[in-house]
Design brief:
Length: about 170
């Protein structure tokens, strides 16, 4: 019942727009400040490796993630120094404009969980909670945004291509 409300109701679409704009502003400003202010993730990654999340027994909780940071992220720091600020900025832009909202919030959640796994609590739990509301709502979250026109255009384009392929195969 709540899922139907989130996915179909106009009042929910308005509430989702407020949540989407809030998250979009947070993502956009975080990314934009990194782009314009110079960003280097090596210190953050080094700290996440040196001080991993530990359980009550003192053992690493996410050793697989620390291994990923140590063996892939840190050696490819230039890639991450590009992906993080531009990813944050584009996620924010997508949410602010309501354009490809579902994709934007999916990638925002991936980044939130990445920060969370590295040990940064900050506002990530709140962002994850709100992000899952937006993700669950799907199209309705971007209804009062560019998704109102972009999503039908994409659907029509792909359906037409699929129909053309089926005609050509027959």
């Amino acid at each position: 019942m709540f899922n139907k409300f989130l996915r179909e109701n106009k009042i929910a679409a308005a509430i989702l727009t407020v949540i989407r704009l809030y998250l979009g502003y947070a993502w956009f400003t975080a990314g934009f400040h990194k782009i314009t202010g110079g960003f280097d993730a090596s210190g953050y990654l080094g700290n996440a490796i040196a001080n991993p999340v530990k359980g009550p027994d003192g053992n690493m909780v996410y050793s697989w993630y620390v291994n990923f940071l140590e063996s892939f992220a840190l050696p490819n720091i230039d890639l991450f120094n590009f992906i993080v600020p531009w990813g944050e900025t584009l996620i924010g832009l997508g949410l602010l404009l309501g354009c490809l909202t579902t994709a934007a919030i999916f990638f925002g959640l991936v980044m939130n969980f990445s920060f969370f796994l590295a040990g940064t609590v900050s506002h990530n739990p709140t962002d994850i909670f709100l992000g899952f509301i937006i993700l669950t709502a799907g199209f309705n979250a971007g209804k009062y945004g560019l998704d109102r026109w972009v999503v039908p255009f994409i659907r029509n384009t792909f359906n037409k291509k699929a129909e053309d392929k089926a005609k050509a195969a027959a």
